[in-house]
Amino acid sequence: MEFEAIMQNLKKKVYHPIYLLQGEEPYFIDQVSNYIEKYALPEAEKGFNQTIFYGKDTEEQNIAETSWRYPMMAEKQVIIVKEAQSLKKIENLAPYAERPSPSTILVLNYKYKNLDARTKLYKAIKSKGVILTTKRLYENKIPAWIDNYLKKYEYTITPQAAQILTDSLGTELSKIANELNKLVIAVKNTNKITPEHIEKNIGLSKDFNVLELQDALAAKNVLKANKIINYFGANPQQHAIQMTIATLFGYFSKIFAYHFLADKSEQGAIKTMGGHPFYIKKIIAASKKYNPTKLYEIMGILREYDLKSKGMGVSTLTDQAELQKEMIYKILH
Q1: Which of 169, 260, 264, 331 falls between 20 and 30 A from 85, CA-CA?
Q2: Quick one: pLDDT band at residue 152, thresholds 50, 70, 90?
Q3: Is residue 138 over pLDDT 90?
């Protein structure tokens, strides 16, 4: 079942006897599990009828026995197993899953991996309960996710602001959601979040970030690129060289891929590569400055400096800021 459908059912008080929440993206797992923990039972019933287990500290038999018992002076009980992926023999829960108690809501938080779909346990949960399988979002999907997340607060965000957050925070949804929650509280007198709001409330500069560096490189603006990379060097905690390299590698890889699209129109690029039109326009513009040969060379430069940033082929005393300056110089020349 999809995440949105599960959440809609939960808000309607439609509960199932077993939830297997599995996969690579913990944010969606936590959202479902936390909602059940907070709202499935009235506060007065939680003391006797809500139990939290941790996979590494419990046995499957204990979980099953607790799940089979009757709730105390209530219609339902909630059993939540956190870190279920750490259970030694999770398959031992199969007998319970095949005939679960109708008065129990059992939630298995199975993070960062998937239960084998061939097992009796998986098949029983699929038959009797709900399975949510989560996947990490690709970077080009994050701006749209940010936009949709803010809509529930009746806020919008400019494409540039969404891209700044993506470039700076990566693809960890819990981390992004935390920063968006701060913005919603902090931003007043408007319902539109801009780069200025991000700079003021989160500390991510609207002028000195990876997105601005990409724009400077795309335009071959040597002065601006050097100003930004000098700022990065002076603020290594916020702008680690490895993060800069990873982001630039993804950026130049997209420009390289654009050169080989059959349909190079804006709509064709959006359909094939994904991403906001705002971002795709920048890719198309940059493709006019960098031909495939130069782009291939740039990706080699980025790989070289990734190794150097990890101490390979350079002195241990080599300054990371100097490495970044060298790298940008080679990209531009």
Answers
A1: 169
A2: confident
A3: no
Q: Do 258 and 285 contact (CB within 8 A), yes or no?
A: no
Structure tokens at 272: 């094939």
Q: Which long-range contacts (CB under 8 A, 24 or more apart) does 64-70 make?
A: 64/92, 64/93, 64/95, 64/96, 67/96, 67/100, 67/101, 67/104, 67/106, 68/96, 68/101, 68/104, 69/101, 70/101, 70/103
Whole-model pTM: value is 0.73
Task: Express each pLDDT in 39-83 by its tens digit.
Answer: 999 999 999 999 999 999 999 999 999 999 999 999 999 999 999
For the chain, give the mean pLDDT.
92
Q: What is the pLDDT of residues 274-302, one digit of tens each?
A: 877 888 999 999 999 999 999 999 999 99
Q: Of 3.40.50.300, 1.10.8.280, 3.40.190.10, 3.20.10.10, which CATH number belongs to 3-134?
A: 3.40.50.300
CA end-to-end distance (rounded Å), the chain: 51
CATH architecture of 139-201: Orthogonal Bundle (1.10)
Domain residue spans of the chain: 3-134, 139-201, 210-332
